[in-house]
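Entry 14. Ran structure prediction on the chain below.
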Amino acid sequence: MTTVAAYAAPAAKAPLERTTIERRPVGEFDILIDIKFAGICHSDIHQARDGWGEGIFPMVPGHEIAGVVSEVGPGVTKYAVGDRVGVGCFVDSCRECEYCEQGLEQYCAKGMTATYNALDKDGEPTYGGYSTHLVVDENYAVRIPEGLALDVAAPLLCAGITLYSPLRHWNAGPGKKVAIVGLGGLGHMGVKIAAALGAEVTVLSQSLSKQDDGLKFGADHYYATGDPKTFQELAGTFDLIVSTVSAPLDFGAYLSLLKTDGALVNVGAPEEPVSMNLFSLIGGRKTLAGSAIGGIPETQEMLDFCAEHGFGAEIELIRAEQVNEAYERVLASDVRYRFVIDTATI
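Output, C-alpha cells:
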C-alpha cells in the first residue's frame, strides 16, 4: 500500500480537509497515475453532503481525473510511463454482462464500481481524484489526446461524456433542433458538443445573463425560461431537449416544447422526487428519458472528438484549499463553468 495526500469529507456535510489515504499496490494490469488535475462536479457535493443517500466516509470525491502514468504493472499493454490519461466516474465493472461486453460499463448489470463513495471488489472503499495519485486497472482509463490540455480535459471525464452520450444516442446532428437546459458545468459542454455535431442549438436558461457565453460556445438561440412567453413561442420546436439542471422541472412545460416523437433526456439528478401528468407524454408520442455518463469506448470517442474540434471545458483553476469555497460557489451558480483543482497544491 502507498500513502498519498488527499482532500476528504470526514463526515456528511462536513468541510473537506487535507488528509492521507492508502492506495493499493500496482497489480499486474494496473497503472499508477500521477493526478495533475481534478474537476469539481455538482455530484461531488450531492454525495459529500448525503444528498443522494447515505455515503461512505471519509469520502474523497472527484471523478474528473487527468494525469500522467508513472508506473505500469507487468501485464499492462495499453499504456506506458509518461502517457496522458484520464479516469471518469467508474473504475471497474463485472466485465461479463451483456452491457460490459458492449462497452456500456456504466450500465453494468451487477453495478459499476464508482470512482469514489463505493466499495471495490476487495470490499475496501474507493477514493476519488481529490488526491495526488490513483491506481486503476488499465481497462478503466482512457487516453487524453495531445491536442487537449490536461486541465481543460479533466471535466470532460464526467461533464463531457455525460452530454456526449445522450447527444450521440438520440442522434443530434444536422437537421436536428436540440435544446440544452441550463448553462453550467454540464450545459456549456452540451452546447459545444451539440454545435460541433452540426445540430441547431438553443440554450434554455433561467435568465439571459449568460447569453453571450452561450452564443460563443456555439448556440444559435438563447431563451430565458423565466419568461412565460418562451414556452409559448417555442411550443413544438425541438427534436431533443437535454436537461442538465439538478432541480425539479415542470416536465409538462418542457415536454410541450418537443415535436411529436421528441425526447426530453435528463442528465441532472435532483435530490427531490418529481411528478408529472402523463398526458404530457401521450399527446405527442414523446419520450421522457435519462442518461448516465458513457462507457469506456464512448468516453475515448468523446475525448478524440473534442480534441478534433479544438475544445475542452471552460474552467477556473483553484488550489486544493479552496475546495470548500468552490462548493459554495457551485451551489450559488458562481462559476464559469467548471472548477478544477490543481492537485500539485494538495
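The chain is about 25% helix and 25% strand. Will compare against last week's run tomorrow.
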